[in-house]
Specification:
The chain is 75% helix and 1% strand. It is an all-alpha fold and 342 residues long. The chain folds into two domains: 225 residues, no CATH class; 38 residues, no CATH class. Helix 3 packs antiparallel against helix 11, helix 5 runs antiparallel to helix 11 and helix 9 packs across helix 11.
C-alpha cells in the first residue's frame, strides 16, 4: 500500500481530500448532506462540467490548452436550440420532436468538430501558442453568440427536451449521469486501449521526439482539439436541458472549474501525464464542495470563485512540491547525495 501511494501521489492526495470533505460535511450537515434529494441533485449537476472536463483532459495530456471550449459550446447550443425551436410546435408528436432534437444535437456536434478543427489548424499549421489562439477564438465565438441573441437567452424549447433531461434511465440513473458514464467509458477506452492514447501521452511528454518517431503530431493535435470541442458541446447541451434555454454566457464559471479539476487530478498543462480515474475523483470532490457550500445559508454563493481560486492555488503549490524541482524532489536528491557521501 505504501509503495502504491508513493507511485500514485495524486491518487493519494485525492483520496485524502475526498475523505476530509466527506467527513466535514457529514459532521456539519449530517443527514441533510446524505439525503436522497442531495445525492440526486449532485448526480444531475456534475455531468455538465464533467463532460467538458473530460474533453479538456485530452488537450492537457497532449501538452496543449483550450480556452475557447465554453464559448464554443454556448455558440453551438444557441444554434442547436434555435433550430429545435424553429422546427417544433405543440401539434407534433413526441417521436417527431425527438427527431428534431436529435438533429439539433447533431448540429451542435458538427459545430464542435468545425471549431476544434480551427483551433488545431491555428496551433499546428500557423504555430500560434495554444493559449493565445484559443482565447482569440473564445472571443470570436462569444461575439457570434452575442450578435445572434443580443445577449438574451434563447427559449421556447419543447417540454420533451427538459423532461428527458430530468428523467431516469433504468429507473434510477439520472439521464445526464447516464450520458456522462458513456462519455467516461469512451474517453477511458481512447486513452487506455488505442494507439491514439499512447501517441497522445508521447506527444505530451516530448512532442519533438514523437515527431521523429514517425507520429503525425499535427494530425493528432487537431484530432485532440476536435474531441475536446465535441465533449464540451455535449456538456453544454446537457446544460440546456437544465436551463431550458441557451445563452452566450452560460457555463462561464466552468472555465476555471474544469481547469481546477484537471490540476487537482494531476493532469497538468505540461502534458504527458494524467489518469482518468483521478479526474473522476476530482470531479466528484469539486461537486461535493459546490453542493456542500450551498447548504450554508450564511455563506454568500458568490464566494465560490474565492473557494475555487484558493483551492487551485493550494493544489498548484502541492503539485510543484510533488513533481519536477519541487521541495520533495530536492529533498530526495539531498538525501541520496548524503547517503552516497557516507
Amino acid at each position: 500500500m505504501k509503495n502504491y501511494f508513493a507511485k500514485n501521489k495524486y491518487t493519494a492526495l485525492l483520496l485524502i481530500l475526498l475523505a476530509a470533505v466527506l467527513l466535514f460535511f457529514t459532521v456539519t450537515q449530517g443527514s441533510k448532506f446524505w439525503s436522497a434529494s442531495m445525492l440526486s441533485g449532485m448526480c444531475m449537476q456534475f455531468p455538465e462540467f464533467g463532460m467538458i472536463t473530460l474533453g479538456l483532459m485530452f488537450c492537457f495530456i497532449s501538452g496543449n490548452i483550450d480556452m475557447s471550449f465554453v464559448a464554443l459550446g454556448d455558440f453551438a447550443a444557441i444554434i442547436a436550440v434555435k433550430y429545435i425551436v424553429a422546427h417544433t410546435n405543440d401539434t407534433m408528436s413526441n417521436g417527431a420532436i425527438g427527431g428534431v432534437i436529435f438533429v439539433g444535437i447533431l448540429i451542435s456536434v458538427l459545430i464542435g468538430i468545425f471549431g476544434g478543427f480551427i483551433n488545431g489548424i491555428l496551433v499546428t499549421m500557423l504555430n500560434i501558442p495554444p493559449v493565445m489562439a484559443t482565447i482569440a477564438m473564445s472571443l470570436v465565438w462569444q461575439g457570434f453568440s452575442t450578435a445572434l441573441t443580443r445577449g438574451d437567452a434563447v427559449t421556447g424549447l419543447p417540454m420533451l427536451y427538459s423532461e428527458v433531461g430530468h428523467s431516469n434511465v433504468l429507473g434510477f440513473i439520472p439521464f445526464p449521469l447516464f450520458i456522462f458514464i458513456i462519455g467516461f467509458v469512451i474517453a477511458a477506452f481512447l486513452l487506455k486501449c488505442t494507439t491514439y492514447g499512447e501517441k497522445l501521452y508521447m506527444i505530451g511528454t516530448n512532442a519533438k521526439a514523437a515527431k521523429f518517431s514517425a507520429i503525425n503530431t499535427k494530425f493528432l493535435i487537431i484530432l485532440t482539439f476536435i474531441i475536446c470541442a465535441v465533449y464540451s458541446n455535449l456538456g453544454c447541451m446537457i446544460m440546456v436541458s437544465t436551463m431550458s434555454s441557451a445563452k452566450a454566457d452560460y457555463g462561464s464559471s466552468y472555465l476555471m472549474r474544469c481547469i481546477l479539476i484537471l490540476v487537482l487530478a494531476g493532469v497538468l498543462p505540461d502534458g504527458g501525464y494524467g489518469k482518468i480515474m483521478d479526474v473522476l475523483f476530482a470531479i466528484v470532490i469539486v461537486q461535493i464542495i459546490s453542493s456542500g457550500v450551498n447548504m450554508f445559508p450564511q455563506i454568500n454563493t458568490y464566494y465560490a470563485s474565492l473557494i475555487w481560486g484558493g483551492l487551485l492555488l493550494i493544489v498548484l503549490i502541492l503539485s510543484t512540491k510533488m513533481t519536477g524541482d519541487g521541495f520533495f524532489a530536492k529533498k530526495a536528491v539531498k538525501k541520496a547525495a548524503a547517503a552516497n557521501k557516507n
